[in-house]
Specification:
Blueprint (H helix, E strand, L loop, with lengths): L7 E6 L16 E2 L2 E2 H11 L5 E5 L5 H9 L4 E4 L8 H12 L5 E6 L7 H14 L3 E7 L8 E4 L5 E5 L6 H4 L3 E10 H7 L17 H7 L4 E5 L12 H21 L3 E2 L6 E2 L4 E2 L4 E2 L4 E3 L3 E2 L4 E2 L4 E3 L2 E2 L4 E2 L3 E3 L2 E2 L4 E2 L4 E3 L19
Length: 360
Amino acid sequence: MTAKGPAAVIVLAAGEGTRMRTAAPKMLNEVCGRAMLGHVLAVAQELLPQRLILVVASPDGQVAGYARVNFPAARLVVQERTSSWGTGHAVRTVIENVGTIHGTVVVLFSDTPMLRSSTVASLVAEHEKARAAVTVLTATAPDPTGYGRILRDEHGRISGIVEEADATPEQRAGSEISSGMFAFDGDLLADAVKRVPAAPATGEEYLTEVPAILRADGHLVASAFCPDFEEIQGVNNQVQLASARRVLNERLLARHMAAGVTIVDPASTWIDVDVTIEPGARIGQATQLEGRTTIAAGASVGPGSLLRDTVVGAGASVLQSVCEAVVIEPGIEVGPFAHLRADDFDQPGTRPAGLGMWLH
């Protein structure tokens, strides 16, 4: 990967996600205070791509609206539902809209909130080191049901990827799976994606056909292995969404504790991704910290407290209370059983300071 990052990162977000059974599109369901799509776009931005491209189903939909507000640098490409569909069609739509992209092109999914930027950076580095036409991000699945299986030749090289719906029983027995995420040579991708056939079982154009096409053309197909299977899993229903929240919350808690924050009971503590906690703060059990809450060194929050978009000053304490969009000055004690809201003060809708005059 160059200092400027890959030539492009394409994030696919045009799917309907009906199994989630929520009013909002699947990828806008939140995990630790951020939409799943937001987690993936944040990972993409950390790679410093020259272009960030988001494939959406509608220019006026909720997904496009979310991206415009939160990731304005992303270019939106609309994948209209036609007789052709699928991940291959989505990438072909990008090429048809923006033209051939020269350099490394990374393709990610919008429903993989557990994906780490370091994993994608390793994918890009392996791809460019091998000078491959395409590099597949693979993993070993305890239960590979639903995933495309990696096919290898007698020399151990990738010969193709077969989707489960089209796989033979022998192929389904394999445990090495494709994450569906790739790094491509952009020039070769632009040609190969035009030749992706419709799958016999579904009629969709799968991007997973491109490695076999490029191999048949005589190009190198490489792989990068992700040792953490959880990281590459997509979220398709409420059970998987809850699991993703647990995984990301545990990561956030571990990061804060490693930095010197005391968290009395991690199992009952939930922290959003944009929460800031200074070393030396103490978080009691059964506490939730949401939004852009900031807690200073020496402060104590909990047990049994909920803070949302709240600033807690050094040495302050919050016990069994709910605080929403307020500033708690240094040394102030709140609770038990207080409920503080910005709307309760003289300037509704603000984050008022000076709580010392209200609390004793």
